[in-house]
Amino acid sequence: MRTLCSSTLIGEFFVIAFAGLVAMKDPDLSMAAVWTVSGIAMFLCLVLCGLVTRPGGVALGWALQIALIASGFVVPTMFFMGAVFAALWWASVHYGRKIDEAKARFAARAADAPAPDAA
Question: Greatest CA span in the chain, whole angstroms?
């Protein structure tokens, strides 16, 4: 699960950076405010890459997805991009857990298998 979720979060990191560049063109927003919010969100993406397998990591990821969708109020394209990344986040969590379960079953079978004769 960690690999899939981390890949999604790294993709979000770049999308947030590009959204920050777009938001800078809004005359009502200061550059400091745009990059403070974008920087915090980008930092959270990187931190969550390491926390995704810990308790609450997936929930924090969902909170980030909601914030990404809500950023569409500033950069309207982010409504779409946020929805796309929320779907990717769901898929990463769902299929990542299935892959982890399959790996555990395979490891258990390998541990129970008799050792081949070294003839």
Answer: 78
Q: How confident is the model at residue 118 (pLDDT cuts 50, 70, 90)?
A: low
d(Cα 115, Cα 100) in Å, to the nearest integer?
24
Average pLDDT over residues 34-51: 95
Amino acid at 46: L
Nearest to 103 by CA among 92, 113, 95: 95
| Spatial CA neighbour of 74 closest among 12, 29, 18 | 29
Residue 88 in contact with residue 8, Cβ under 8 Å?
Answer: yes
* Residue 101 to residues 39, 97, 105, Cα–Cα distance (Å): 35, 6, 6
